[in-house]
Amino acid sequence: MTLELGAVPRDLKYTEDHEWLRDEDGLARVGITEFAQDQLGDVVFVELPGVGDGVTAGEAFGVVESVKAASDLLCPITGTVTEINEKLDDDPELVNSDPYGDGWMIVIEPSSPDELDSLMGPIQYVEMIARAE
After folding, report:
1. N or C end: fewer C-beta atoms under 10 angstroms in the chain?
2. CATH number, domain with residue 33
């Protein structure tokens, strides 16, 4: 899958592990990228942490299972989970159909908002994918 800059939302930050983060007035909404869901195939189950759970940058915060494989979801920042996408319990395929919208996974209250500065912008993310192909 060749990724073009136009296919990547410009208002998001990205990780090398294909998670995205949207800064929403000091809270961080997190999901996986279009590229990641395409690599996974049809998502059949998503396991997420609970509200109030602590999460750590670079560590697993959940699991996404597809018809192809199960993969850890790695947290882009450290903080506390303030919301989870309960729609994914009954409709995990939202991760495939709308990864940047209804397929989001968790909202985090960051411990250190400066961590967002260490994430990639859309141009860097697309360049990383191009180097890997």
Report:
1. C
2. 2.40.50.100
- For residue 1, being part of any structural domain is answered with no
* Other C-beta atoms lying within 10 Å of the C-beta of residue 93: 15
126 three-state secondary structure: helix
Q: Under a CB-based contact definition with an 8 Å cutoff, are residues 42 and 70 in contact?
A: no
pLDDT digits (tens, 9 = 90+) for 65-118: 999 889 999 999 999 999 999 999 999 999 999 999 999 999 999 999 899 999
Q: Which domain holds residue 107?
A: 11-113
- Does a structural domain hold residue 59? yes
pTM confidence score:
0.93
- Residue 23 in any domain: the answer is yes
Each residue of 10-46: pLDDT tens digit?
Answer: 999 999 999 999 999 999 999 999 999 999 999 999 9
Q: End-to-end CA distance of the chain, in Å? A: 8
